[in-house]
Amino acid sequence: MTAKSDAPLNEGGSIILNGSVQAVLGIPGYTAYAAAKGGIRTMTRNLASEFAPRKIRVNQVTPGATRTPIWSLVVPTEDAVKELELRISQAIPLGRFNEADEVAKAALYLASDDSAIVSGTEIVVDGGATGSPLGAPIFRHG
Hints:
alpha/beta, Rossmann fold, two-stranded parallel sheet
């Protein structure tokens, strides 16, 4: 499949796909979701190649654990959400969840002219969970 020149995207535009660290973490019970997000990683790179002749950039934002209402689907109370966040944060090198606006800022960068030469890449917003996992608090000594 190749990008067609009559597609509704303007030359010089930006496409931003939403990934997930689930594509690389290997968490039990999330196989289908992880496979779908792995497909997004591949799609980002392929679409970047296909749209390059039209100067359309294709990139991906990949958030890690982010403070949003979705956690209430996993645990029943606000106190339980806070406890879960504390536990998960121990496996994040920077020691905390993302804020939603931090993920949005990565997407805004990719949509802006500041990233005019950036295409086919992924910005991972996860506090180092996938890039430097052994820096997480649970692995620190002293």
